[in-house]
What does this fold into?
Amino acid sequence: MFYQHLRNERAISGKQEPEKEKGSHNGVCFRTACSNTGAIWYNHATDHYYCAGCAMTINEANYSDAMRIYGHDLCQRFETPRN
It folds into this structure.
């Protein structure tokens, strides 16, 4: 109920903030257990973006497989959206 009230207030005031899709560039981290914003670390296996903390965890856990398959870390930082 409280959140609905906030949405209504934003709509009335014209201050509607565009919602970024989870896993999109500079949006919310794609990891289910994470809600950090500013996701600019692209995961080559999932084709989604992650926050720095989650990207480092993914890179550490998958280092040898990523090197064998891609020749680089699984998650790489991209300041602009990857095409």
Q: What stands out?
A: The chain has a mean pLDDT of 85. Residues 22-83 form one domain. The longest strand covers residues 37-39. The beta strands are 27-28, 37-39, 41-43, 48-50, 75-77.
